[in-house]
Amino acid sequence: MDGIKLINVSKFYTVEKESLRVLNGIDLDIPENKITVILGRSGCGKTTLLRLVSGLEEFEQGEILGANSKRKAYVFQEDRLMSWLNVKKNITFGLHNKAIDHSKVNEIIETVGLEKFCSAYPSQLSGGMKQRVSIARAFAYDPDFIMMDEPFSALDFFTREQMQKELIKIHQKLKCSILFVTHSIDEALILGDKIVILEKGIVKS
């Protein structure tokens, strides 16, 4: 199997001794080397779905096939950069020094337009630039599969539009599967090779 497949996946949380079903029998195919967008309102279970696929949380029912064999990276809503590390060191953070392909890292930095900011620190960067660092860090890990949890939601309209274009360009150049969560219909239409609508823990289309 090249992609990832969810079969009848359900997730429950216990709140004040009451079982709350967050995801209800999710069936989903996530194709290889495409951008799959999960679109839905706040609280519909989008982030929970992302965390189940990533392995950050466990599910109570169903199967997720193909995920364990993937080399995965995660981009959060906030940039989560290390304030004491410069741009390049943030991008290579977590990689073993011997395993770092500096030519590829430099190519990724150039692709996201940060080649003039390699020595800059997070406090010297704009919000959009910080998210570029986060995205570059994910791609530097050389993943098969990237999960992105509303990474542009805190950005202004113009920066968000620019980052969407940047992501498409990076994806076309470097290739990998992306599962992207958003509540913006416009963003889903711009980015998605496949769009999945999630409503109250159920896939609607």
Q: How would you explain this protein's 3D organization?
A:
By secondary structure, the protein is of the alpha/beta class. Helices cover about 30% and strands about 30% of the residues. Strand 8 and strand 9 (about 200-205) form a beta hairpin. The longest helix has 18 residues, at about 155-175. The radius of gyration is 17 Å and the shape is globular. The mean pLDDT is about 90.
What distinguishing features does this structure have?
205 residues, alpha/beta, 6 helices, 31% helix
Quick structural overview:
This protein has 205 residues and is an alpha/beta fold. 31% of the residues lie in helices and 28% in strands. The protein has 6 helices and 9 strands, in the order βββαββαααβαβαββ.
Q: Which spans have pLDDT < 50 for at least 5 consecutive residues?
A: none
H/I helix tally: 6
General form: globular
Helix content: 25-40%
- Average per-residue pLDDT, rounded, comes to 88
Strand order of the largest sheet: 5-6-7-3-8-9
Largest sheet: 6 strands, mixed
- Helix-strand string: EEEHEEHHHEHEHEE
Distance between the termini: 22 Å
Which class best fits the helix and strand makeup?
Answer: alpha/beta
Quaternary state of this entry equals single chain
Nearest-angstrom radius of gyration?
17 Å
What fraction of the residues are assigned to beta strands by DSSP?
25-35%
Number of strands: 9
